[in-house]
Amino acid sequence: MKIGVVSFPGSNCDHDLYHVVKHVCGADAQYVWHKDRLPAGLDAVMLPGGFSYGDYLRCGALARFSPVMEDVVGYARGGGPVVGICNGFQILCEAGLLPGALLRNASLHFVCQDVLIEVQGAETPFTAGLRGERLRVPVAHGDGNFFADDATLDRLEGEGQVVFRYVGGAPNGSARDIAGVAAGPRMNVVGLMPHPERASEAILGSADGKKLFESLLGAAG
Tell me, what CATH number does 92's domain have? Predict the structure, then answer.
């Protein structure tokens, strides 16, 4: 079982993802540089958090045009599991693989704190068997305010595409307290702002995030 971890200039959570996949969950992880093609035989692809291209122009807007994204888009549209965390979520929205957009936090301040999120909506490769569970994971972002028009939000709710929701209110102003959404032919593309890779070992204060990676590896296997 092999998971591709895409690295962009400015990514700073790619090593965290690699560590969780390989050393915590015991699966094979492989870095994929943004100028390279996706290698054959990947069971899932993950886009990490960070500040790709320094967040110039708009978060994720430049990374969306990285050469590797052509393959990521094709892989996702073919049903391959793709997960974007924080900046990775922003990139997936910019690439048109996920609906909505991530705006500046309503407070206009960077937020860095633990949050409680609830797994909801349709089952995805990242949330299999976890619906209804509440997970304690951290957020760390300045542009995590999920936005979509009311018609799109109603459709997302109705079709089970809201797969993570902040419990007790969003720390960033996200519409309807949305923390993550899914799309794709098999709900195989998932994006979320919280960082489960930073809450996958008890020594970090919470191992709740590990459940999501175990779900992904189980689905990929």
Answer: 3.40.50.880
CA torsion, ordered 166, 172, 176, 180, to nearest 10 deg = -60
Q: Which of 51, 44, 52 is nearest to 21 (CA)?
A: 44
The residues assigned a catalytic role are 86, 195, 197
Q: Looking at the 3D structure of the chain, how many domains does it have?
A: 1
Task: Report whether pLDDT(78) > 80.
Answer: yes
Task: Give SS3 for 200.
Answer: coil
C-alpha dist (Å) from residue 62 to 7, 120, 156, 163, 196: 13, 31, 26, 26, 25
Mean residue pLDDT of the chain comes to 97
Range of the domain at 102: 2-220
Identity at 80, one-letter amino acid code: G
- CA–CA separation, 63 vs 51, rounded Å? 10
